[in-house]
Amino acid sequence: MFDWPGGSWEETLRLVVTVLAVYLAVIWVALIFWVYRDIRQRTRDPIMQIVAVVLALAFFLPGYWVYLILRPRQTLTELYERTLEEEAILQDLEDQKACPTCRLRVRDDYLVCPSCLTQLKDPCPGCGRPLDYAWSACPWCAREKPSASVPGLAPPANGDVPAEAPGLVRRQR
Questions:
Q1: 156: DSSP letter
Q2: What span, in angstroms and rounded, lies between the C-alpha atoms of 66 and 56?
């Protein structure tokens, strides 16, 4: 008939079992190494790291499946990036100004509140950009900010005492 490749069927069976055992041992060691690397990327807790490796070490594939079910969903890098995104969003919210009257969020370049029409900033007489009240000159066109004066009470040009407004009655003392 035909000869067995290893001489006898017992020798061939022993060779196949040995090759399968070595293959499974390599897969098992690789799985343990992968679980170790993966759990270190997902948590800093040393007890969780040891439990994960022991699960894969002691129970091979069923231990690996249990590890996959119980492992943290996100890596530490993903958690850190998410935290950075949240901080950036919160910083953007804090940087937004609010109208002093209605408390509605307004952009920094608004002259008036679009909701209640409260004047937030004065426009520059040169370029029209909004000027903060604390500024003495426009940072964009370098034009000096006009002095703040009360409307209707402009100082007289010749130094005389201003005339009284019509309809205003002076009280006698």
A1: P
A2: 9
> Into how many domains does the chain fold?
2
SS3 of residue 81 by DSSP: helix
Do the bridges between strand 122-123 and strand 130-131 make them parallel or antiparallel, or are there none, so unpaired? antiparallel
Q: How far apart are CA 112 and CA 35, in angstroms?
A: 59
DSSP secondary structure code for residue 124 in this structure: P
Q: What is the pLDDT of residues 127-154, one digit of tens each?
A: 888 888 788 888 888 888 777 554 544 5
Residues 115 and 55 in one domain: no
- Answer yes or no: do 71 and 101 share one domain: no
pTM above 0.90, yes or no: no
pLDDT at residue 78 above 60? yes
Q: For residue 130, what are the β-bridge partners?
A: 123
Separation between Cα atoms, residue 126 and residue 74, nearest integer Å? 54
pLDDT grade for 169, boundaries at 50, 70 and 90: very low
Domain of 28, in residue numbers: 9-77
In a domain, 156, yes or no: no
Rounded CA-CA distance 103/75 in Å is 40
